[in-house]
What does this fold into?
Amino acid sequence: MQMGDGKIGSPYVSGDLFVIGNTRCDSPSAEGKFDADAPMVTRGAGAGGTRAAVTVHAEKPHGEWNLAEVVVHGSEKAEFYLNGKLLNVIRNMKFEDADGEWKPLEKGHISIQAEWAELEYRAIRIKEIEG
It folds into this structure.
């Protein structure tokens, strides 16, 4: 889940999806933009582009804290929320193993970084949800 400067139309908006490395997933999008009602498009390595841009503005004004949530259901689905608004959904997450086979992406590192825009984090929590 990309965190950006909050202006729709700017280069990076909070909630954008960037699929990097030897990974891929499906996202409902039309013309590269998230649309929950659109057909699924495979994004990532060797697929239809790496980005699914957000069309919903959910950031609070500059200087106020935002609540960003990523809810992951194994390799099957992840939902990106900002301040309670659904911004993006991805499904069918996979990675390419050393033999070149695509396998379910069921575990891995959680990375938090800041680049391009001023960004501060506080109260980072990871919660496992049963079910």
Notes: The chain has a mean pLDDT of 83. Strands lie at 17-18, 23-30, 33-34, 40-44, 51-52, 68-73, 77-82, 85-96, 102-104. The two ends are 23 Å apart (CA to CA).
